[in-house]
Write a structure and sequence with these properties.
By secondary structure, this protein is mainly beta. The chain contains one helix and five strands. 10% of the residues are buried. It is found in: Secreted.
Amino acid sequence: MSQAPAKATDYDGSGGWFKIYDWGPTFSGGQASWPLRSDYTFNIPKCIKNGEYLLRIQSLAIHNPGSTPQFYISCAQISVSGGTGTASPSSVSIPGAFKATDPGYTANIYNNFKSYTVPGPAPMTC
């Protein structure tokens, strides 16, 4: 998420971004499984300051080892209200928050795939 200085409709996303949630595959019996669904539900942490934000959702296709992952990105303009408004999460710049050498980008799902590290910073906590 990135807080808009005023209206989200006028914001270009050039400010700092912080992560509120991430997930990767689960591993069981030597197999990886991703939570692939047509919709997802997640509550925005209550400590996020009230205001207008851009919300960015990033999904990676990592099925071509040795090449750049395929990025699937969606964004939304949201208004946060009713929270306690005390959080000051550390932020990163986009572009720049992710590197081609991040483990989540270099994973090979066809060879010894027993763990996965989601790229980027850790999600913020209240």
